[in-house]
Specification:
Its main location: membrane. This protein has 279 residues and is mainly alpha-helical. Helix content is 48%, strand content 11%. The chain has two domains: 59 residues, no CATH class; 153 residues, Orthogonal Bundle (Cytochrome p450). Strand 4 and strand 5 form a beta hairpin. The longest helix has 34 residues. The chain is globular.
């Protein structure tokens, strides 16, 4: 246990060593702009970054700004929270596209019909509905986290035949919600077309209307980066499929078994044979 604590503190120190110089540079740039308001900014300095908003933040109860270490903690959360979950989901999606080549081919043909330039632009993504469907189905079938963070009940609640008492701690199994056979037809199959109905075109990920799946949580406390995560996944999947044909390695049937690490990852990581597509 002591070695684990030592390793944790070593990692935290590394984070500080990497992030603090960037934070100080942004702080210096902000101070320089305030002293010289007519100064012409460089391209990088003219962009308002996440760190800039943290430097401006005032804690009303304590009447102070955030400390450097508090900003490091928030930046680390911002950078790490969207990394592991996104890469895990991407691997699950690509594994299913390898396992089901007809889905991959349908996606490729739709991308090819929309994207005329070599580089895929953000505007292109909005015109590829099957791409959005593939990403949503990946999140439904293989949510990177199966359980939501613990919540406390503020008053006695009756759910079906059960009474959940006030101040009880509850943990929601988000994966099971997305696999509910009363909501989803054949829920354990990978079928992006289920999201292509009129309802699927404007599928509500926030849970405001109803909750059919919740890979990012739901309500006011859902993941604030869910839209960015979906955008990243669409970019990655679109580029990987448009540039390469993905095939299973000879003799490999693509094992979709899962195991729990920080996220729910593939028990046997994806191995695939890539072929560059002709232009």
């Amino acid at each position: 246990m002591r070695k684990r604590w030592e390793e944790l503190f070593r990692i935290l120190k590394c984070q500080e060593d990497v992030l603090i110089p960037f934070i100080r540079e942004r702080k210096k740039a902000k101070e320089k702009r305030s002293r010289e308001p007519n100064m012409e900014d460089s391209k990088d300095e003219s962009v308002v970054s996440y760190v800039d908003t943290l430097l401006d933040l005032q804690l009303p109860d304590e009447n102070r700004k955030l400390t450097e270490l508090e900003i490091v903690s928030l930046c680390t959360e911002f950078l790490s929270a969207g990394t592991d979950t996104t890469t895990t989901t991407l691997q699950w999606i690509m594994a299913n596209l390898v396992k089901y080549p007809h889905i991959q081919e349908k996606l490729f043909m739709e991308i090819k019909g929309v994207v005329r330039e070599e580089k895929i632009q953000e505007d292109d993504l909005q015109r590829i509905p099957y791409l959005k469907a593939v990403v949503l189905e990946g999140l439904r079938r293989h949510p990177p986290t199966h359980f939501m963070p613990p919540h406390a009940v503020t008053e006695d609640v009756v759910v079906g035949e059960y009474v959940i008492p006030k101040e009880a701690t509850i943990i929601i199994n988000a994966a099971e919600i997305g696999w509910d056979p009363t909501v989803w037809e054949d829920p354990m199959s990978f079928n992006p077309s289920r999201f292509l109905s009129k309802e699927g075109e404007t599928f509500d990920m926030t849970g405001r209307r109803e909750i059919k799946m919740m890979p990012f949580g739901a309500g006011r406390r859902m993941c604030p980066g869910y839209a960015l995560s979906i955008l990243h996944l669409e970019y990655f999947v679109a580029n990987l499929v448009s540039k390469f044909e993905w095939k299973a390695v000879d003799g490999d049937n693509v094992d979709l078994s899962a195991k729990l690490e920080f996220t729910m990852v593939m028990k046997n990581p994806l191995q695939a044979q890539l072929s560059l597509r002709s232009k």
